[in-house]
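Continued from yesterday's entry.
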Amino acid sequence: MDNRLKSLIDNLDKIKIGLDNTFKFNCTMCGKCCKNREDILLTPRDLFLLAKHLDILIGEFIKKYCEAYIGGSSRIPIIRLLPTGIDKRCPFLRGTRCSVNSVKPVVCALFPLGRCLTIDSSKNRTEFTVSDVVYINQDPHCGDNRKTHTVREWLETSNVPVKDEFFVKWNSIISQVGITVHEVEKKADDERMNRFFDLLFGLLYVAYDFKEDFLTQFDRNAKFALELTRRLKEEYDG
């Protein structure tokens, strides 16, 4: 676990903020939040919107702008936006402005807020609801405090749903697949796992048609991914 994530977990109670609580932040368009960042992870929805906006295939977008790898703890394919240059800037930063502002990743749209799911590990849950979503407020180290917002208002102006059905479903899939992979990897050989990861990567991130509704396709692909994971587990059970 990296130090940033550990700090978030250790201080979660101090930085949590409710939907109707206020925080102060004013973006001064300095561009600092788009530099020296190597932790911008993209969801399937982020990829869908970005690639559609740029009029390129999702697979092409990933090859050009991202790094794909298997998460060390999650054990699922992860897509990271690759920074560029000595100052590790976002590839879509033009001067101090975002060139894909209308479809920028949700983690960027939420800034300086963040969000996570509260999970009671003793209950071994793999499915979540919107009531499990927690918002956090950290020092952005940029901008100023001239404006006051509620979290709810910030979400609305950032085009992030207050009840984000996809976010909950995505984390449920991550949890369910991850738990099974942790079990199976103890028994399966590298070749079998690599084939599984390739199929999972395609289903979760790439197999989308821009002419169809994203969430409908995600639900279908997630169902296939869970079936693929179930079959993998059955191969090595017993």
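--- second protein ---
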Amino acid sequence: MTGPRHRPLVVLEQASVTLGGAAVLRDVTLTLSTGDRWAVVGANGSGKSTLLRLLRGDQWLDPFLPGRRLFHGPDGEPSASPIGVRERMALVGPEGQDAYARAGLDLPVEAVIRSGLDGERYPVLPATPARSALVERAAAPLGVEPLLGRRFLALSRGEARRVLVARALAPGPEVLLLDEVCDGLDAAGRAGLLERLVAVAAAGVTVVTATHREEEIFDGVTRMVRLAGGRVVDDRAADSRAASDRLADGCSPAARDPGGRTTGGRETVGGPAGDRGADRLPLFDLRDVTVLVDGHAVLDRVRWTIRAGESWGITGPNGAGKSTLLRLLAGEEQPATGSIARLDLGLRADADQVRRRVGQVSPELQARHRLDVAGEAVVHSGFLGTVGLAERPSDRQRQEVTALIDLLGLASLRARSFLSCSYGEQRLLLLARALVARPAVLLLDEPFAGLSPEARRALRETLARQRGEGTTLVLVSHHEDELAGVVDRRARMAAGRFTVDA
């Protein structure tokens, strides 16, 4: 029965979306109503992100296929236009976050949150006392009040994500759409955000969250929608948080074990102590390195030596300096004080010299990679360390790309437009790009973000194989289960300081 507290907002009837010639959604029939609390799950490329954009009106239906979408405003009258309804919906996801970096919108955090009041990326109206109060009210529950004076692009990935959630909540939306909203958050940040979502939903906001992780489905979800191949394959009322009703898309309990004890029956942590011998060739040597960002010491007197064949896992809270550390290794940051020797390139090597020698994956790299080329071309670019192909690949390189794509199970993405791929599919192509030239070093910043349980498990096996072949790994993660079986050395960062675990 539909009443004032439970009326339709968006109705999809046999809705289909085609992107880059590929069927992304097919024959989707769903009704989103006021007060709904959905979790949308499914493997990479199943259509989750596209569904969220479709619900908000940011994505159009395929005009050559049957199907329709109707938006219902406060008066209940249906319309094919999202105007008047979309303004009351907020969407938070990795693609929106990347848009700030691509556009170079390095605004103060306060201005980013205030822009949510105007429905624009840049604030239209000034910071009046009333608007400033709304900004502070949205910032406080998410713990981002101390960041209000900082520049947005200087924040860590997790800090920026919490800011964007505050931006979405500032105007008091009727509908909150969340796409892998916990990616990049440390454990405390995830817990705090999930508590906030419980409160937001209890206040009557309609919430739809798409995620690959069972533990990131907030308490109180009432409906589970599972997608596969762009179609709804399961749509049911959520039960009392049974895992089998959530993410049964390939992640075994062993692979999810937060203690990291086993994965698929394999032993997980470490290698023999002899593997840590000091006679290995130093690849990176940091001596009392301090790196400043906006005058703030993001890295503070770091001393660290990485030797050939070592595999390091780096953990720490949001804003600790982990991503900056990887950018320093890659030559994208330089010390304000202290020194770093990279590979055999001496003390003054820059990113141009380093990039042909290492494989990299990071959210920043993914944000920059906006050329609309085929997935195969993205992987080819790994031979040059470039964004896009600057040289014609050789026959040998073509053969190696084909073999790697097949090995990683990405054949369906070979001819796909990169920009038509899901965020997780793009991440997988960039991982293949990092591996294709068989680099001696892999620098990986949250490489598992946006990946389904099955894809995470396959990536862990790939990295463990690389480690066994002697590749040096440096892997940043907020999830212990992602490090188990992949790294044999651990270090932790906090407030820019670097500590090696015993």
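Confidence is low (pLDDT under 50) at residues 240-276. The first helix runs from residue 48 to 56. Will compare against the first tomorrow.
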